[in-house]
Amino acid sequence: MLNLTGNLAQYEARIIIVQAAIAPFDPVQLVFAGIQA
Prior knowledge:
Blueprint: H1 2-22, H2 27-36
């Protein structure tokens, strides 16, 4: 289960990176990324 959680965290991190690349100046995305970091 721990491994699954780790994979999920990596997957979410990649989504955040992609979203940040698509909309780097979107305040909502920046706040969301800050909360998740």
